[in-house]
Amino acid sequence: MSESDGLQKGGGKVDLTPAQLAATPAEHQRRAGNALIRADDITAGYLPGIDILSECNFYLDDGEIVGIIGPNGAGKSTLLKALFGLIPIRNGSVRLRDTDITSAKAHTLVQAGVGYVPQTQNVFPALTIEENLEMGIYLRPKKFAERFDVVADLFPLLSERRKVKAGSLSGGERQMVAMGRALMMEPSVLLLDEPSAGLSPMFQDQVFIRCKAINATGVSIILVEQNARRCLQICDRGYVLDQGRNAYTDTGERLRNDPKIIELYLGTLAGSSEK
Ligand SMILES: Nc1ncnc2c1ncn2[C@@H]1O[C@H](COP(=O)(O)OP(=O)(O)OP(=O)(O)O)[C@@H](O)[C@H]1O
Prior knowledge:
Keywords: Amino-acid transport, ATP-binding, Nucleotide-binding, Transport. By secondary structure, the chain is α/β, with parallel strands linked by helices.
């Protein structure tokens, strides 16, 4: 199907923008290929009978930063949780390269090279920074010193303040501990849930700069963000979710400059939209 063909919806012909076309299931199948992580047609939710994600498609290629943006309640964090096996998937599948990881347990995924940083409660406040990082690599304690050096290169604060309790840190510092802890296991892919949420503009900037730096070390990143503009600036590709469905997908740059996306999602992310 060419971009100008449009789709038949309810008997009428609907012209799709390139970013809408790319978000169709057929295009997903065509493009996802041998992705590092891919989710095909996943339907998932928290409560019986209530689907939050409906037939969602997603893929991440090696070396990419892929952003997930959309209005409040669109299901962005839910998609990340579904990828990391934290909520039951009712239909569809998630694959890590050739392995089916649909609803796999977190420790299995961590061992397979997937790191996940939740939005909140992502550090042990009573433990020091160093102890938090030890928790991140409890499956391979002998590698602690080696990995600590690598992670401290990315986040010097973690080394400088290693004996400080995480509970006494600012929100931005805690976020660095949480990201550092997830990196201890040398993941090939990092799932970040709204890492800039609630941070001062300076720390928000730091988060995005660190995401690029982490990515430059070879870690692929899935980034759920409420700061959509900033997210699209650093990501290779982005997905716009709306009401639990794929609405648009394209390169970060094209989404950021797409008048429809600007109108619907970048002006204000306050509410969900009708399209
Ligand atoms: N633990 C839960 N139990 C039941 N429903 C939930 C739970 N967590 C989220 N939801 C619901 O799922 C929907 C999607 O939430 P989600 O957090 O994925 O949205 P989001 O796109 O990440 O939004 P935000 O940017 O506001 O965090 C919302 O309607 C929310 O109320």
